[in-house]
Amino acid sequence: MSRRKRAHAEGAHDNDERWLLTYSDLITLLFVLFVVMYAISTTDVRKFVALAQSVSAAFNADVMSGQQAISISNGQDMTVQQNTSASGTSPVQSDLKAIQAALEDYAIGQGLGGEVQVGMAPEGIVIRLNDALLFSSGRAHLDDHAIKLVNEVANIIKPLPNHVRIEGNTDDQAPDGVLYTNNWDLSTARALAVLEAMVNLGLDPSRLAAQGNAQYDPIVANTDDASRARNRRVDIVVLYPADATAGPTPFAMPSL
């Protein structure tokens, strides 16, 4: 009888310790989660895209999918020229997806709607910011809210080695303020304001250039207030060398 009782007691002891297996599995999963979180917290944009593509393949889902695209071309379709690598994705496309994903999260969190856009042009990736997010009418001064947005963009593009051109654009109406008498001055001052903010935020000034286009690079014809509002913008163009592209492929710029 004593032997039977002892065997029964030992069996119960084994069953009571089975929770340790579940506990150890949980600790292992938490460790993996923290490793993944650390990996995506680094500022390497291409590594972020590689991780997203791996997760997408594992779960058979499009992790980087965006919202419905809209065209913002000025009578001609914007195009992206791409040189697809063996993996099926060019560096330009990878960087585009990463920038889109990061800015989409920010835009949703800040309730910016369609005021921030990311897309492709023949020269590279275009981050398009509506001027109302950055400046008061007829002004080229960035307030704290605008600095926060520029800081977000700067942090996203800082890890990339590319040169960046900042373009100021206006509508066809003359400035209504006393500081700037024409759109050339206003658009250039706005591009310089964004450039200087990015330098202050840590971007290498040797990578940056500013350009004022006045009203001469519209997205749409300046026929009404709505179209003029679309044309008033700052475009931050991440430039790619010509040999990184080959053969135009139509591409529409989505609103984030």
Show the helix and strand layout.
Layout: H1 2-16, H2 19-41, H3 45-59, E1 79-81, H4 91-110, E2 116-121, E3 124-130, H5 144-157, E4 164-169, H6 183-200, E5 208-212, H7 225-231, E6 233-239, E7 248-250
Parallel strand pairs: 4-5
Antiparallel strand pairs: 1-7, 2-3, 3-6, 4-6
Helix pairs in contact: 3-4, 4-5
Report on the structure:
The chain contains seven helices and seven strands; from the N terminus they run H-H-H-E-H-E-E-H-E-H-E-H-E-E. It has 256 residues and is of the alpha+beta class. The chain folds into two domains: 2-41; 66-250, 2-Layer Sandwich (60s Ribosomal Protein L30, Chain: A). The strands form two sheets. The chain has a five-stranded mixed sheet. A two-stranded antiparallel sheet has the order 1-7. Helix 3 packs across helix 4 (91-110) and helix 4 runs antiparallel to helix 5 (144-157). The longest helix is centred in the N-terminal third of the chain and has 23 residues, at 19-41. 30% of the residues are buried. The model is unreliable at 59-88 and 245-252 (pLDDT under 50).
